[in-house]
Amino acid sequence: MVDTQDLSTADVIVIGGGTGGYSTALRAAALGLGVVLVERDKVGGTCLHRGCIPSKAMLHAAELVDGIAEARERWGVKASLDAVDWPALVATRDDLVTRNHRGVEAHLAQAGVRVVRGSARLTGPRTVHVQGPGGEPAPGVRDFAARRAIVLATGSRPRTLPGLEPDGRRVVTSDDALFAPGLPASVLVLGGGAIGVEYASFHRSMGAEVTLVEAVDRLVPLEDVDVSRHLTRGLKKRGIDVQAGARLLDAELLEDGVRARVRTARGETRTVEVERLLVAVGRAPVTDGLDLAAAGLATDARGFVEPADWARLETPVDGVHVVGDLLPPPSLGLAHASFAEGLLVAETLAGVASVPVDYAAVPRVTYSSPQTAAVGLGEAEARARGYEVDVNTMPLTAVAKGMVHGQGGMVKVVAEAGGGQVLGVHLVGPHVSEMIAESQLIVGWAAYPSDVARHIHPHPTLSEAVGETFLTLAGRGLHQQ
Asked: Which among 14, 196, 415, 430 has the fewest CB atoms less than 10 Å away?
């Protein structure tokens, strides 16, 4: 525990209170280590306050709006939507965030983690100076020394585009999109990764005309090509103007919006005038003010802090570890991956055996409508790595519950040829985010299709499409040959 004779000393100093930082702190404290957690904003970080949690709350509201339209148009339920009460929706979202924030603070307090408010600056490999908000001196002790390690968990911020600075109203980033005033009637979303797709989906559900622009030739380009294809089909069916292989030429700020010129994949120039332009072109690691050089550290060309030892997530400087969005690929910049990284580092520092993070077995989810969820290798990536593969794809509408939902979608499994281990599972459709955990176990444990095929999936569910796909790969398919 923290030495009561010298409160400036702790076993572990964690800089950053987001998912990676607070998971490190909680696990280290549970293992008997004294922990100081330095956070300049609020514990919970981007995920809790500006990302995962508030955005998923709003996407749930969007799903309810979509459900009213489906009830009326498809099921004969005479429902109607009078209006979306934006202040009430925001109040519910903020209440959920506040309750989660209080929960994290309570867990840290109960665990005995000392939370210090302010900005941390490294003064050596295991020493830190803390300044209060706005640069004023932090109250109480300002200088800390770590007996075992410093853990860097300072997270990331949205990337912006030169000459297109966010103003929180006409031009917004993913961090402030949900906090912009009101609901726009039209939106141009730049970036077709998971974040851009989710925001395009949300605004379309809320009635906006949406144009989604992605520079690469397909949406969610890190996913399997069939995932991109089915997702694009679903978004277009909802009326979203998807422009893949396109790029922004320029944008002009208007009094009440933005006028942008877009070069399409066909080489045509289109002018799009919208109330709001949302920039979702990725995130950049945050290290400003940290003074990495004082600890003998430097970032790579992309701004990441590269570990020397991925099995311990330790930097080239002994006793300095890194978790979360500061890590370069193969780390994924996902909150649930940073939880695993925090557990790994805390257990390493406590001398507890811990298995390194298997990034290939970390699920990847896009919470749009339709959703995507995947784990492991896509077909093209598997072939590029030299695997001979068997692939089976099944539309969700091939099972009764998929017909009920009526959103389309698919299950795709990539396995080594001849009944070998499962390399990847890829899902598109309603609620597939809740179905991917099974596939994580399948990929993570290097199961064979025959291993999965002997387990019974409940009927009628969407999950039986997963089961049927594995039955077919195992040579036992009922509805596919």
From this structure: 430
